[in-house]
């Protein structure tokens, strides 16, 4: 069945006029008449009967007009839905993130975004840096946020979304609490370490290698940022963490910072996307707002 002919017939039936239907559709009157005749022939029933200068729907025409009206409404719904999708007003935003941005940055960013785009469905997955990259590469996520910058991966583009610092912390009762010590001395402590694949763990190992210092022994290995700070507060060991993770616990007196000269490293949080791959509209809108927010800071 010619669906466009049904739309043409809908305009004729609604207006009761071939002329007005032609004006609405911006096609010629003969073209309108041709479409209606072909539809009538295809269905095997006359759809219109002459009525002076106007038209009259036959019984079959009335029935077809009801279906055509629903088709026209569906067409309008499709166009409206796709326009909302195109502008990012509707759709699904799929984010893969490491623990730092997932816990300390993205909740506020997404809350602000949802005020402007309330119809967007948000799916956020938290993994280590390696798994986040894999989800992006295999199209299981549209955007990735990685604390510590992550590794350079061919085919992926990175942009700075936020930056803080990496701190050494110990329990508030530790002898080093609030003091300045050397990196060699700090590495003699047992550490609460993040799991292999963690960006912060990789940064700590790189710091030791650059300074020709033996990496610290593990007191315990955890796979969560809250577990890290809680383990340090309980006295299980020292840790190397983002200032975002530690600042509130430091302010509450649960843990303390240790100053290690020449080791205060910036800790970038990067937005990672597939290079040369257009973002879905919702992801594009969110990424633009995050990057604009980063520039203002």
UniProtKB/TrEMBL annotation:
Superkingdom, taxonomy of origin: Bacteria
Swiss-Prot/TrEMBL keywords: DNA-binding, Transcription, Transcription regulation
SUPFAM superfamilies assigned: Periplasmic binding protein-like II, Winged helix' DNA-binding domain
Residues in HTH lysR-type domain copies: 1-58
InterPro entries per the UniProt record, alphabetical: LysR_HTH_N, LysR_subst-bd, WH-like_DNA-bd_sf, WH_DNA-bd_sf
Family assignment from sequence similarity: Belongs to the LysR transcriptional regulatory family.
PANTHER family with a match to the protein in the record: HTH-TYPE TRANSCRIPTIONAL REGULATOR (PTHR30126), HTH-TYPE TRANSCRIPTIONAL REGULATOR GLTR (PTHR30126:SF40)
Protein name: LysR family transcriptional regulator
Lineage: Bacteria, Bacillati, Bacillota, Bacilli, Bacillales
């Amino acid at each position: 069945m010619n669906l466009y002919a049904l739309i043409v017939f809908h305009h004729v039936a609604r207006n009761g006029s071939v002329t007005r239907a032609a004006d609405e559709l911006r096609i010629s009157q003969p073209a309108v008449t041709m479409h209606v005749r072909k539809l009538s022939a295809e269905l095997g029933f006359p759809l219109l009967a002459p009525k002076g200068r106007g038209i009259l729907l036959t019984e079959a025409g009335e029935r077809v007009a009801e279906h055509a009206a629903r088709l026209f409404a569906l067409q309008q719904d499709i166009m409206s839905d796709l326009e909302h999708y195109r502008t990012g007003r509707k759709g699904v935003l799929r984010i893969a993130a490491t623990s730092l941005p997932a816990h300390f940055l993205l909740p506020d960013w997404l809350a602000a975004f949802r005020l402007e785009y309330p119809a967007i469905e948000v799916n956020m997955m938290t993994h280590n840096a390696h798994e986040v990259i894999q989800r992006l590469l295999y199209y299981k996520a549209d955007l990735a946020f990685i604390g510590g910058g992550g590794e350079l991966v061919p085919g992926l583009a990175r942009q700075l979304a936020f930056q803080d610092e990496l701190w050494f912390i110990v329990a508030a009762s530790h002898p080093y609490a609030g003091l300045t010590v050397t990196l060699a001395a700090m590495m003699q402590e047992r550490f609460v370490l993040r799991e292999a694949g963690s960006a912060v763990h990789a940064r700590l190992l790189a710091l030791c290698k650059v300074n020709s210092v033996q990496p610290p022994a593990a007191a315990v290995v955890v796979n969560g940022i809250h577990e890290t700070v809680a383990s340090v507060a309980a006295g299980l060991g020292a840790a190397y963490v983002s200032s975002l993770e530690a600042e509130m616990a430091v302010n509450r007196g649960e843990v303390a910072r240790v100053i290690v000269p020449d080791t205060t490293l910036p800790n970038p949080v990067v937005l990672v996307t597939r290079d040369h791959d257009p973002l879905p509209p919702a992801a594009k809108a969110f990424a633009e707002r995050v990057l604009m927010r980063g520039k203002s800071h």
